[in-house]
Automatic annotation (TrEMBL):
<dbReference type="InterPro" id="IPR014776">
    <property type="entry name" value="4pyrrole_Mease_sub2"/>
</dbReference>
<keyword id="KW-0949">S-adenosyl-L-methionine</keyword>
<dbReference type="Pfam" id="PF00590">
    <property type="entry name" value="TP_methylase"/>
</dbReference>
<dbReference type="InterPro" id="IPR000878">
    <property type="entry name" value="4pyrrol_Mease"/>
</dbReference>
<dbReference type="GO" id="GO:0032259">
    <property type="term" value="P:methylation"/>
</dbReference>
<keyword id="KW-0520">NAD</keyword>
<keyword id="KW-0560">Oxidoreductase</keyword>
<keyword id="KW-0456">Lyase</keyword>
<dbReference type="GO" id="GO:0004851">
    <property type="term" value="F:uroporphyrin-III C-methyltransferase activity"/>
</dbReference>
<keyword id="KW-0808">Transferase</keyword>
<feature type="region of interest" description="Disordered">
    <location>
        <begin position="400"/>
        <end position="423"/>
    </location>
</feature>
<feature type="active site" description="Proton acceptor">
    <location>
        <position position="196"/>
    </location>
</feature>
<feature type="compositionally biased region" description="Polar residues">
    <location>
        <begin position="404"/>
        <end position="423"/>
    </location>
</feature>
<feature type="active site" description="Proton donor">
    <location>
        <position position="218"/>
    </location>
</feature>
<dbReference type="GO" id="GO:0019354">
    <property type="term" value="P:siroheme biosynthetic process"/>
</dbReference>
<keyword id="KW-0169">Cobalamin biosynthesis</keyword>
<dbReference type="InterPro" id="IPR014777">
    <property type="entry name" value="4pyrrole_Mease_sub1"/>
</dbReference>
């Protein structure tokens, strides 16, 4: 049988009687697949695997513990033969052919009237691959296509009308490789993307031409699209039947107002999914080699967005403070922590544009960092890390190193285009 002789199609077997001849592992796999399709399965075989017997005992299929008879094909819609005996399989296939019933002959794929493809399911898409009768090749191709669909490299987007929904997707700190697989897949399915200024912006260039991108990005002190308007856009687009992705930087639920958006969608009857992202509060410091906790240095951390909240966090160098979008208030924040008792020589690191080609790291102390940042022209987006964990960074100057933390070898400043400012 040549591949040109194959007419690909999909059978709807819900409630229809089908026959499986054989009781081994192949027959068990095929019976399970037919049951998943909703078929009424009868298995004819003198012996059956434990898996088949369990299905029969549960009443999910009928097992006839005997040899095959020609009348077994009477009235069935589909036949799968997998006895392991080519002569029996050939007889079953011949009987099915005589009654114009499609039959898959597991013993002779060349003579088989039908082939069983390698199958995978991704969301509501079922992938079936035939590869010239080579099952291993078909499975490899199936897995590759399924992986591409799951990762968003191939589009899962529907083209016919469907019920609208909203997905709040955390895109991570900006590097396209740091969005989750689920987030990437939903982005590939989107009809409308409501995008922040931060996050993996390059992925927007990969969207289909007819996908609408609505820009709602904010900068510190400048919100051209108020949050109430963003909420309205999400619901309005979803109620029109669109799949909406709200693409955010970091994580939707970490100082991202994702909870407000989800609540608004649910209140208006819109299905909403939240896809966590890699929050910049942790990932951006990591891009500069700064852990927010480290044995011997810090066991906990706080994430804040402004100097007003600093009075509520522990003012100790062994408790890491992470400031998001805090460049504009850096001087006030440093002063507030100093007044709360944090020593002026506490290390501070600022990471601008984490993970991006123009990433820059500025390292100083609580007493010097505001002047350093001003002199260097530090700007958002940036993450500020305050505490002894900054000492671990390979960008930290040598005199910041101490013996008070565990490392397998002494840290050495790394050669980099990243500018490091020190006192």
């Amino acid at each position: 049988m040549a591949i040109q002789d194959i007419y690909p199609t999909a059978l709807r077997l819900l409630g229809r009687p089908v026959l499986v001849v054989g009781g081994g592992r192949v027959a068990a796999r095929r019976a399970k697949g037919l049951l998943d399709a909703g078929a009424r399965v009868t298995v004819v075989a003198p012996e059956a695997t434990a898996a088949l017997r369990e299905l029969a005992d549960a009443g999910l299929l009928t097992w006839e513990p005997r040899t095959y008879r020609s009348e077994d094909v009477d009235g069935v819609w589909f036949v799968q033969t997998a006895t392991g005996d080519p002569m029996v399989d050939k007889l079953v296939a011949s009987d099915a052919e005589a009654q114009r019933v499609w039959c898959v002959n597991a013993s002779d794929h060349e003579a088989s009237a039908a082939w069983t493809p390698a199958v995978a399911v991704v969301d509501d898409v079922k992938i079936a691959v035939n590869a010239g009768g080579d099952p291993r090749r078909a499975m490899a191709l199936r897995d590759a296509v399924a992986t591409a669909l799951e990762s968003g490299d191939l589009p899962l987007r529907r083209r016919r009308a469907h019920r609208g929904s909203v997905a709040l997707v955390g895109g991570g700190p900006g590097d396209t490789g740091l969005i989750t697989v689920r987030g990437r897949r939903l982005l590939g399915q989107a009809d409308v993307v409501v995008a922040d200024r931060l996050g993996p912006r390059e992925l927007l260039n990969e969207l289909a031409p007819d996908v609408r991108v609505i820009e709602v990005g904010k900068t510190p002190g400048h919100h051209p699209v108020p949050q109430a308007e963003i909420n309205r856009i999400l619901v309005e687009e979803a109620l029109q039947g669109h799949r909406v992705v709200r693409l955010k930087g970091g994580d939707p639920y970490v100082l991202g107002r994702g909870g407000e958006e989800a609540e608004f969608c649910r209140r208006h009857g819109v299905e909403v999914e939240v896809v966590s992202g890699v929050t910049s509060a942790i990932s951006v410091p990591a891009a500069a080699g700064i852990p927010v906790t480290h044995r011997g240095l810090a066991k906990g951390f706080s994430v804040v967005t402004g100097h007003e909240e600093l009075s509520e966090v522990p003012a100790r160098a062994d408790h890491t403070v992470v400031l998001l979008m805090g460049v504009g208030q850096l001087r006030e924040s440093a002063s507030a922590l100093g007044k709360a008792g944090l020593p002026g020589d506490t290390p501070v690191g600022i990471v601008e544009n984490g993970y991006l080609p123009d990433q820059r790291v500025t390292i100083g102390t609580l007493g010097t960092i505001a002047d350093q940042a001003e002199a260097a022209g530090v700007a958002n987006p940036a993450v500020i890390v305050i505490g002894d964990v900054v000492r671990v960074s390979p960008f930290a100057p040598s005199h910041f190193k101490t013996a008070d933390y565990s490392t397998t070898s002494p840290n050495k400043p790394r050669t980099s285009t990243t500018r490091v400012l020190t006192p």
